[in-house]
Design brief:
The protein is mainly α. The protein has 10 helices and 2 strands. The relative contact order is 0.16.
Length: 314
Protein backbone atom coordinates (compact mmCIF):
# COMPACT_ATOMS: atom_id res chain seq x y z
CA UNK A 1 0.00 0.00 0.00
CA UNK A 2 1.42 3.38 -1.04
CA UNK A 3 2.26 5.03 2.28
CA UNK A 4 6.03 5.27 2.26
CA UNK A 5 6.10 9.07 2.09
CA UNK A 6 3.85 9.57 5.10
CA UNK A 7 5.12 9.72 8.69
CA UNK A 8 3.40 7.21 10.94
CA UNK A 9 2.06 9.91 13.27
CA UNK A 10 0.57 11.80 10.33
CA UNK A 11 -1.17 8.64 9.08
CA UNK A 12 -2.62 7.83 12.50
CA UNK A 13 -3.79 11.40 13.06
CA UNK A 14 -5.37 11.60 9.62
CA UNK A 15 -7.13 8.26 10.14
CA UNK A 16 -8.54 9.26 13.51
CA UNK A 17 -9.78 12.60 12.17
CA UNK A 18 -11.47 10.89 9.24
CA UNK A 19 -13.17 8.31 11.48
CA UNK A 20 -14.28 11.09 13.81
CA UNK A 21 -15.71 13.03 10.86
CA UNK A 22 -17.70 10.01 9.66
CA UNK A 23 -19.05 9.32 13.15
CA UNK A 24 -19.95 13.00 13.56
CA UNK A 25 -21.82 12.98 10.23
CA UNK A 26 -23.62 9.80 11.27
CA UNK A 27 -24.60 11.45 14.57
CA UNK A 28 -25.98 14.45 12.70
CA UNK A 29 -27.87 12.03 10.44
CA UNK A 30 -29.43 10.25 13.42
CA UNK A 31 -30.38 13.57 14.99
CA UNK A 32 -32.02 14.90 11.83
CA UNK A 33 -33.76 11.58 11.20
CA UNK A 34 -35.15 11.51 14.74
CA UNK A 35 -36.43 15.06 14.35
CA UNK A 36 -38.05 14.49 10.96
CA UNK A 37 -39.54 11.06 11.66
CA UNK A 38 -40.50 11.40 15.31
CA UNK A 39 -43.93 9.89 15.83
CA UNK A 40 -44.32 8.76 12.21
CA UNK A 41 -43.88 5.03 12.74
CA UNK A 42 -47.20 3.43 11.76
CA UNK A 43 -45.77 -0.10 11.73
CA UNK A 44 -45.02 -2.52 8.89
CA UNK A 45 -45.38 -0.88 5.51
CA UNK A 46 -45.54 2.68 6.88
CA UNK A 47 -46.49 5.24 4.19
CA UNK A 48 -43.33 6.62 2.56
CA UNK A 49 -44.73 10.08 1.86
CA UNK A 50 -44.05 12.21 -1.19
CA UNK A 51 -41.06 11.41 -3.37
CA UNK A 52 -39.25 14.59 -2.32
CA UNK A 53 -39.71 13.87 1.39
CA UNK A 54 -38.67 10.26 0.93
CA UNK A 55 -35.48 10.99 -1.05
CA UNK A 56 -34.15 13.57 1.38
CA UNK A 57 -35.05 11.39 4.35
CA UNK A 58 -33.49 8.33 2.70
CA UNK A 59 -30.14 10.03 2.02
CA UNK A 60 -29.92 11.23 5.62
CA UNK A 61 -30.90 7.73 6.81
CA UNK A 62 -28.14 6.13 4.74
CA UNK A 63 -25.55 8.49 6.17
CA UNK A 64 -26.77 7.72 9.69
CA UNK A 65 -26.96 3.95 9.20
CA UNK A 66 -23.97 3.29 6.95
CA UNK A 67 -21.20 5.72 7.88
CA UNK A 68 -20.36 3.91 11.15
CA UNK A 69 -19.69 0.68 9.19
CA UNK A 70 -17.97 2.02 6.05
CA UNK A 71 -15.15 3.80 7.85
CA UNK A 72 -12.56 1.05 7.14
CA UNK A 73 -13.16 1.42 3.38
CA UNK A 74 -13.01 5.22 3.49
CA UNK A 75 -9.86 5.18 5.65
CA UNK A 76 -8.06 2.80 3.29
CA UNK A 77 -9.08 4.87 0.27
CA UNK A 78 -7.76 8.01 1.97
CA UNK A 79 -4.49 6.36 2.95
CA UNK A 80 -3.79 5.11 -0.57
CA UNK A 81 -4.83 8.49 -1.97
CA UNK A 82 -2.45 10.34 0.36
CA UNK A 83 0.36 7.95 -0.51
CA UNK A 84 -0.12 8.72 -4.20
CA UNK A 85 -0.13 12.43 -3.48
CA UNK A 86 3.22 12.16 -1.70
CA UNK A 87 4.62 10.49 -4.80
CA UNK A 88 3.18 13.13 -7.14
CA UNK A 89 1.03 10.54 -8.90
CA UNK A 90 -2.20 12.49 -9.30
CA UNK A 91 -4.29 12.73 -6.16
CA UNK A 92 -6.63 15.74 -6.36
CA UNK A 93 -8.01 17.41 -3.27
CA UNK A 94 -11.50 16.43 -2.23
CA UNK A 95 -11.33 12.92 -3.68
CA UNK A 96 -12.34 11.24 -0.40
CA UNK A 97 -15.50 13.34 -0.14
CA UNK A 98 -16.31 12.52 -3.77
CA UNK A 99 -15.77 8.81 -3.06
CA UNK A 100 -18.31 8.98 -0.21
CA UNK A 101 -20.69 10.97 -2.43
CA UNK A 102 -20.54 8.24 -5.07
CA UNK A 103 -21.40 5.71 -2.38
CA UNK A 104 -24.47 7.72 -1.40
CA UNK A 105 -25.50 8.12 -5.04
CA UNK A 106 -25.73 4.35 -5.40
CA UNK A 107 -27.76 4.01 -2.21
CA UNK A 108 -30.05 6.80 -3.41
CA UNK A 109 -30.69 4.87 -6.61
CA UNK A 110 -31.40 1.75 -4.56
CA UNK A 111 -33.78 3.72 -2.37
CA UNK A 112 -35.65 5.05 -5.41
CA UNK A 113 -36.08 1.50 -6.69
CA UNK A 114 -37.43 0.47 -3.29
CA UNK A 115 -39.85 3.40 -3.34
CA UNK A 116 -41.13 2.45 -6.79
CA UNK A 117 -41.68 -1.19 -5.79
CA UNK A 118 -43.38 -0.23 -2.52
CA UNK A 119 -45.73 2.30 -4.13
CA UNK A 120 -46.57 -0.07 -7.00
CA UNK A 121 -47.51 -2.78 -4.49
CA UNK A 122 -49.60 -0.32 -2.44
CA UNK A 123 -51.47 0.86 -5.52
CA UNK A 124 -52.83 -2.66 -6.05
CA UNK A 125 -54.70 -2.43 -2.71
CA UNK A 126 -54.79 -6.20 -2.31
CA UNK A 127 -57.20 -6.92 0.52
CA UNK A 128 -55.65 -10.34 1.18
CA UNK A 129 -52.49 -8.68 2.55
CA UNK A 130 -54.21 -6.17 4.82
CA UNK A 131 -52.91 -6.48 8.37
CA UNK A 132 -56.00 -8.24 9.74
CA UNK A 133 -55.57 -10.93 7.07
CA UNK A 134 -52.25 -11.88 5.52
CA UNK A 135 -50.26 -8.78 6.51
CA UNK A 136 -48.29 -10.34 9.38
CA UNK A 137 -47.32 -13.28 7.17
CA UNK A 138 -46.20 -10.93 4.39
CA UNK A 139 -44.10 -8.80 6.75
CA UNK A 140 -42.67 -11.88 8.46
CA UNK A 141 -42.00 -13.49 5.09
CA UNK A 142 -39.94 -10.50 3.93
CA UNK A 143 -37.81 -10.74 7.07
CA UNK A 144 -37.43 -14.52 6.64
CA UNK A 145 -36.34 -13.95 3.03
CA UNK A 146 -33.66 -11.59 4.37
CA UNK A 147 -32.50 -14.37 6.70
CA UNK A 148 -32.24 -16.81 3.79
CA UNK A 149 -30.34 -14.27 1.67
CA UNK A 150 -27.70 -14.04 4.41
CA UNK A 151 -26.61 -17.58 3.49
CA UNK A 152 -26.53 -17.26 -0.31
CA UNK A 153 -23.36 -17.16 -2.45
CA UNK A 154 -24.25 -13.68 -3.74
CA UNK A 155 -24.42 -12.35 -0.20
CA UNK A 156 -21.06 -13.93 0.57
CA UNK A 157 -19.41 -12.32 -2.47
CA UNK A 158 -20.85 -8.86 -1.73
CA UNK A 159 -20.00 -9.07 1.96
CA UNK A 160 -16.43 -10.14 1.16
CA UNK A 161 -16.00 -7.03 -0.99
CA UNK A 162 -17.24 -4.85 1.87
CA UNK A 163 -15.05 -6.57 4.47
CA UNK A 164 -11.80 -6.33 2.47
CA UNK A 165 -11.29 -2.63 1.77
CA UNK A 166 -7.60 -2.85 0.84
CA UNK A 167 -8.30 -5.49 -1.80
CA UNK A 168 -11.16 -3.42 -3.22
CA UNK A 169 -9.19 -0.19 -3.36
CA UNK A 170 -6.08 -1.72 -4.95
CA UNK A 171 -8.00 -3.74 -7.55
CA UNK A 172 -10.57 -1.04 -8.39
CA UNK A 173 -8.37 2.06 -8.23
CA UNK A 174 -9.22 4.84 -10.68
CA UNK A 175 -7.33 8.14 -10.57
CA UNK A 176 -8.76 11.63 -10.39
CA UNK A 177 -12.04 13.00 -9.11
CA UNK A 178 -14.09 11.15 -11.70
CA UNK A 179 -12.27 7.96 -10.70
CA UNK A 180 -13.11 8.64 -7.04
CA UNK A 181 -16.77 9.03 -7.96
CA UNK A 182 -16.75 5.80 -9.98
CA UNK A 183 -15.06 3.92 -7.14
CA UNK A 184 -17.62 5.26 -4.66
CA UNK A 185 -20.47 4.20 -6.93
CA UNK A 186 -18.92 0.75 -7.36
CA UNK A 187 -18.40 0.28 -3.64
CA UNK A 188 -21.97 1.44 -3.07
CA UNK A 189 -23.18 -1.19 -5.53
CA UNK A 190 -21.42 -3.95 -3.60
CA UNK A 191 -22.88 -2.56 -0.37
CA UNK A 192 -26.41 -2.49 -1.84
CA UNK A 193 -25.90 -6.08 -2.96
CA UNK A 194 -24.85 -6.96 0.57
CA UNK A 195 -27.58 -5.08 2.48
CA UNK A 196 -30.65 -4.77 0.25
CA UNK A 197 -32.47 -7.62 2.02
CA UNK A 198 -31.84 -6.03 5.42
CA UNK A 199 -33.31 -2.79 4.06
CA UNK A 200 -36.34 -4.73 2.80
CA UNK A 201 -36.72 -6.06 6.35
CA UNK A 202 -36.67 -2.46 7.59
CA UNK A 203 -39.57 -1.63 5.26
CA UNK A 204 -41.43 -4.64 6.64
CA UNK A 205 -40.86 -3.53 10.23
CA UNK A 206 -41.57 0.19 9.75
CA UNK A 207 -39.20 2.36 7.76
CA UNK A 208 -40.08 5.46 9.81
CA UNK A 209 -39.09 3.79 13.07
CA UNK A 210 -35.85 5.09 14.55
CA UNK A 211 -35.64 2.00 16.77
CA UNK A 212 -35.79 -0.43 13.86
CA UNK A 213 -33.32 1.71 11.93
CA UNK A 214 -30.85 1.37 14.81
CA UNK A 215 -31.51 -2.38 14.92
CA UNK A 216 -30.82 -2.88 11.19
CA UNK A 217 -27.77 -0.59 11.32
CA UNK A 218 -26.41 -2.70 14.19
CA UNK A 219 -26.85 -5.88 12.13
CA UNK A 220 -25.03 -4.27 9.20
CA UNK A 221 -22.16 -3.15 11.43
CA UNK A 222 -21.99 -6.62 13.00
CA UNK A 223 -21.54 -8.46 9.72
CA UNK A 224 -19.11 -5.89 8.28
CA UNK A 225 -16.90 -5.09 11.25
CA UNK A 226 -16.66 -8.16 13.48
CA UNK A 227 -13.52 -10.19 12.72
CA UNK A 228 -15.41 -13.51 12.52
CA UNK A 229 -17.18 -13.27 9.20
CA UNK A 230 -19.00 -16.61 9.17
CA UNK A 231 -20.11 -16.32 12.79
CA UNK A 232 -21.34 -12.76 12.28
CA UNK A 233 -23.22 -13.65 9.11
CA UNK A 234 -24.88 -16.71 10.62
CA UNK A 235 -25.68 -14.75 13.78
CA UNK A 236 -27.50 -12.09 11.75
CA UNK A 237 -29.38 -14.84 9.88
CA UNK A 238 -30.54 -16.44 13.14
CA UNK A 239 -31.69 -13.09 14.54
CA UNK A 240 -33.68 -12.41 11.36
CA UNK A 241 -35.15 -15.93 11.44
CA UNK A 242 -36.46 -15.50 14.99
CA UNK A 243 -37.72 -11.98 14.24
CA UNK A 244 -39.48 -13.05 11.05
CA UNK A 245 -41.30 -15.92 12.73
CA UNK A 246 -42.30 -13.66 15.61
CA UNK A 247 -43.70 -10.98 13.31
CA UNK A 248 -45.61 -13.59 11.29
CA UNK A 249 -47.17 -15.52 14.17
CA UNK A 250 -47.02 -13.31 17.27
CA UNK A 251 -46.54 -9.68 16.17
CA UNK A 252 -48.14 -8.36 19.36
CA UNK A 253 -45.23 -9.85 21.33
CA UNK A 254 -42.46 -8.23 19.27
CA UNK A 255 -40.92 -5.38 21.32
CA UNK A 256 -40.99 -2.07 19.52
CA UNK A 257 -43.26 -3.21 16.69
CA UNK A 258 -46.17 -0.86 16.06
CA UNK A 259 -49.25 -2.85 15.09
CA UNK A 260 -51.19 -1.31 12.18
CA UNK A 261 -54.60 -0.11 13.37
CA UNK A 262 -53.41 0.35 16.95
CA UNK A 263 -53.69 3.69 18.77
CA UNK A 264 -49.93 4.19 18.26
CA UNK A 265 -50.35 3.72 14.50
CA UNK A 266 -53.26 6.17 14.45
CA UNK A 267 -51.16 8.76 16.27
CA UNK A 268 -48.38 8.25 13.71
CA UNK A 269 -50.79 8.79 10.83
CA UNK A 270 -52.01 11.98 12.45
CA UNK A 271 -48.39 13.11 12.82
CA UNK A 272 -47.98 12.60 9.07
CA UNK A 273 -50.92 14.90 8.39
CA UNK A 274 -53.48 12.21 7.61
CA UNK A 275 -56.33 13.57 9.67
CA UNK A 276 -58.32 14.21 6.52
CA UNK A 277 -57.70 10.76 5.10
CA UNK A 278 -54.79 11.69 2.87
CA UNK A 279 -51.40 10.05 2.98
CA UNK A 280 -48.22 12.08 2.80
CA UNK A 281 -48.20 11.25 -0.87
CA UNK A 282 -51.63 12.83 -1.32
CA UNK A 283 -53.51 9.68 -2.20
CA UNK A 284 -56.00 7.45 -0.43
CA UNK A 285 -55.40 6.43 3.16
CA UNK A 286 -53.98 2.92 3.25
CA UNK A 287 -53.26 0.58 6.06
CA UNK A 288 -49.68 -0.49 6.58
CA UNK A 289 -49.87 -3.29 4.03
CA UNK A 290 -51.77 -1.51 1.31
CA UNK A 291 -55.47 -2.01 2.04
CA UNK A 292 -57.76 1.00 2.46
CA UNK A 293 -59.19 1.19 5.93
CA UNK A 294 -61.46 3.17 8.17
CA UNK A 295 -60.32 3.32 11.76
CA UNK A 296 -63.17 3.80 14.24
CA UNK A 297 -63.39 3.42 17.98
CA UNK A 298 -66.47 1.73 19.36
CA UNK A 299 -66.45 1.06 23.07
CA UNK A 300 -62.65 1.02 23.09
CA UNK A 301 -62.34 -1.53 20.29
CA UNK A 302 -60.57 -0.77 17.00
CA UNK A 303 -62.33 -1.87 13.81
CA UNK A 304 -61.24 -1.92 10.18
CA UNK A 305 -63.60 -1.61 7.24
CA UNK A 306 -63.20 -0.45 3.62
CA UNK A 307 -63.85 3.17 2.83
CA UNK A 308 -63.85 5.34 -0.25
CA UNK A 309 -60.63 6.46 -1.81
CA UNK A 310 -60.30 9.98 -0.55
CA UNK A 311 -61.67 9.93 2.94
CA UNK A 312 -61.21 8.57 6.43
CA UNK A 313 -63.74 8.77 9.23
CA UNK A 314 -62.50 8.77 12.80
Amino acid sequence: MELAGLPRGTVDRSRLLLIAALIALAFVGWTVTDERMHGMDAGPGTDLGTLGFYVTAWVVMMAAMMFPSIWPMVVIYRRVHEGRRERGRGAPAGATAIFVSGYLITWTAGGLLGYAIFEAARSLSIDAVSWDRGGPYLAGGVILAAAVYQLTPLKDVCLSKCRNPLSFVLTSWQPGRLGALRMGVEHGAWCVGCCWALMAALFALGVMSLGWMVFIAALIATEKLLPWKAMANWGVAVVLLVLGLSVAFAPENVPGLVIPGSPEAMEAMEAMGMEEGESMGGGAMHDATGGTVEESMDGGAMHQQPIGAGEMQK
